[in-house]
């Protein structure tokens, strides 16, 4: 389903603007009050963020599933777009099935062994799915001041020193997709972390682009899992490919949630992208890669030499290594990052299991 949303045309206004990349504008006031925010009410983007860019001719579909943490039950999302978008309704399972499709290929016994280990140790990487309702607006403005005034009057708390970011987009003739998000009542009181429902925007653009400039307002580091779907393998400067393969009809049968947007013969590329907000100065433009080869898994596990080195197990993949990965996962450190994707999670456990007994 597509919905153009409400269009708001803005002129003039007072200073005070802001927005965060790929979704977050910031917390808003209680009872939608434009002037009141209760003390301690916050909402931040959290890792990992899941994003998919789908390219069809001169059109791009940007699909997002933000991970958020905080205690605000109402908040805003602000997304710069190069043209008026059509809103896309995205199935809940879209990113879960895309993630399953692009996991490194391993024997079935590996998953069974690693899942047993995780279950016995009370470990899980699943984030809760948050239920939410969206109120959509499209902002057309001729000044950053006008954008700031509209956001302030509609209850958004705006970060300071963000004028240059909004001017960056206004000078290019871009618009802003603004969403007010209301979490459903079943979300527990107090602080929480979870994933919002996926949402999509389709718009015409001559180049494949991910609007990242507003990430400079985050003041933190985020981990992004970025998928591209196009006629060929995509690439960008500094891109780290985790998967690249051509989609088959069998894939769509196995992962039916992908049928809404993906087609047989689409080229799916998966990237890991650590995003340091202070280093972001432009949007991310992607291009067709020179290298169109397939990549569906790791040929050699990239074991950290400091993972475990005790006694007779030194240089051997064994239970001590598995325990080290488990500790790293629990503690949130990168010491157990076996496959080199920047995070410690289920695929790292899988690689340890499949390489049991091997010498490094």
Could you characterize the architecture of this molecule?
This protein has helices spanning about 95-100, 110-120, 145-155, 165-170, 250-255, 320-330, 345-355; strands spanning about 1-5, 5-10, 25, 45, 50-55, 60-65, 65-70, 75-80, 85-90, 130-140, 175-185, 190-195, 200-205, 210, 220-230, 235, 240-245, 265-275, 285-290. By secondary structure, it is α+β, with helices and mostly antiparallel strands. The protein folds into 2 domains: about 1-90 and about 130-290, Sandwich (Immunoglobulin-like), CATH 2.60.40; about 110-125 and about 300-355, no CATH class. It starts with a strand and ends in a 6-residue tail after the last helix. The relative contact order is 0.19.
Percent helix, as a range, is: 10-25%
Low-confidence stretches: 1-7, 9-39, 298-306
Give the termini separation: 52 Å
The largest sheet is: 8 strands, mixed
Strand coverage percent: 25-35%
Overall morphology = globular
Number of domains as seen in the coordinates: 2
The CATH architecture name of the largest domain reads Sandwich
E-strand count: 19
CATH fold label of the largest domain:
Immunoglobulin-like
């Amino acid at each position: 389903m597509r919905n153009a949303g409400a269009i708001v045309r803005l002129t003039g206004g007072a200073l005070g603007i802001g927005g965060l990349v790929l979704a977050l504008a910031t917390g808003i006031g209680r009872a939608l009050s434009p002037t009141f925010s209760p003390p301690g009410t916050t909402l931040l983007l959290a890792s990992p963020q899941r994003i998919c860019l789908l390219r069809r001719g001169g059109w791009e579909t940007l699909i997002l599933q933000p991970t958020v943490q905080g205690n605000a039950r109402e908040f805003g999302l602000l997304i710069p777009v190069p043209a008026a978008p059509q809103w896309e309704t995205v199935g809940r399972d879209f990113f879960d099935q895309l993630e399953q499709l692009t996991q490194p290929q391993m024997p079935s016994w590996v998953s069974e062994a690693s899942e047993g280990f995780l279950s016995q140790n009370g470990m899980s990487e699943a984030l809760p799915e948050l239920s939410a309702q969206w109120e959509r607006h499209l902002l057309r403005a001729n000044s950053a001041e006008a954008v700031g005034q509209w956001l302030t009057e509609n209850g958004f708390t705006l970060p300071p020193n963000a004028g240059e970011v909004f001017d960056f987009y206004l000078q290019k003739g871009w618009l802003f997709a603004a969403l007010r998000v209301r979490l459903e009542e079943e979300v527990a009181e107090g602080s929480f972390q979870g994933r919002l429902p996926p949402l999509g925007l389709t718009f015409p653009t001559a180049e494949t682009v991910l609007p990242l400039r507003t990430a400079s307002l985050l003041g933190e580091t985020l981990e992004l899992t970025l998928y591209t779907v196009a006629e060929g393998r995509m690439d960008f400067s500094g891109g780290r490919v985790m998967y690249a393969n051509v989609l088959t009809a069998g894939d769509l049968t196995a992962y039916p949630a992908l049928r809404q947007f993906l087609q047989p013969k689409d080229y799916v590329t998966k990237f890991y992208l650590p995003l340091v907000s202070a280093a972001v100065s432009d949007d991310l433009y992607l291009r067709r890669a020179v290298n169109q080869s397939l990549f569906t898994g790791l040929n050699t596990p990239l074991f950290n030499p400091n993972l475990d080195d005790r006694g007779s197990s030194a240089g051997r993949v064994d239970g001590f290594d598995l325990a080290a990965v488990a500790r790293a996962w629990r503690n949130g450190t990168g010491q157990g990052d076996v496959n080199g994707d920047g995070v410690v999670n289920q695929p790292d456990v899988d690689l340890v299991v499949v390489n049991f007994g091997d010498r490094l």
